[in-house]
């Protein structure tokens, strides 16, 4: 990210088809393309966005990792040093929640200081058909209490709770005394140019300037 800084490294983890890339697309671009065929993330994709918290700016560096188990070792490389992890699971797929538990254990074993946010995706499908839900909300909150995490259910299709999720991440980072020297006062933030989000071995771009270009948090 030329000419800019990343205050908070955020990694997205979860099973393939779990909605991670759509979540990033909605947050950074405020868009969702239901007609686009699924493309498996190879390696990881990176993008960044600046968020104001308590009169200061936090730059979130967001890594969207591959969900396929064959890229598992590669995903471990990307979560090293992460300050926050958004562990995604598909509300219509109970197996994806079991996979989320795997990633939580990996983080607890290797990145103890990383804050965990459990993110249920595809809420719109559950709202359209309650019988489609395969992951019980109360079960996830009980598990979150156990691992000291937060739970939020989102819909990338409608945008519901997407910005709220990343705002929670930024607030959790900025308000942690350990990160006091990292965040910037708003008036001192450099006006660096947009940077692109690139996906390894794929042509995939998301710009940093979601706010100025009509992003969901604008």
From TrEMBL:
| Keyword field | Autophagy, Cytoplasm, Cytoplasmic vesicle, Cytoskeleton, GTP-binding, Hydrolase, Lipoprotein, Magnesium, Membrane, Metal-binding, Nucleotide-binding, Phosphoprotein, Prenylation, Protein transport, Transport
Q: Cross-referenced SUPFAM superfamilies, in alphabetical order?
A: P-loop containing nucleoside triphosphate hydrolases (SSF52540)
> What is this enzyme's EC?
3.6.5.2
Identify the cofactor(s). Answer: Mg(2+)
Where in or outside the cell it occurs: the entry states: Cytoplasm, Cytoskeleton, Spindle; Cytoplasm, Cytosol; Cytoplasm, Perinuclear region; Cytoplasmic vesicle, Autophagosome membrane
Q: Name one GO biological process term.
A: autophagy
Give a GO molecular function annotation for the protein. Answer: GTP binding
Q: Where is it mostly found?
A: cytoplasm
Provide the Gene Ontology terms for cellular component: autophagosome membrane; cytoplasmic vesicle; cytosol; perinuclear region of cytoplasm; spindle
Can the keyword Phosphoprotein be found in this entry's annotation? yes
- Entry protein name: Ras-related protein Rab-24
Q: Lineage, please?
A: Eukaryota, Metazoa, Chordata, Cephalochordata, Leptocardii
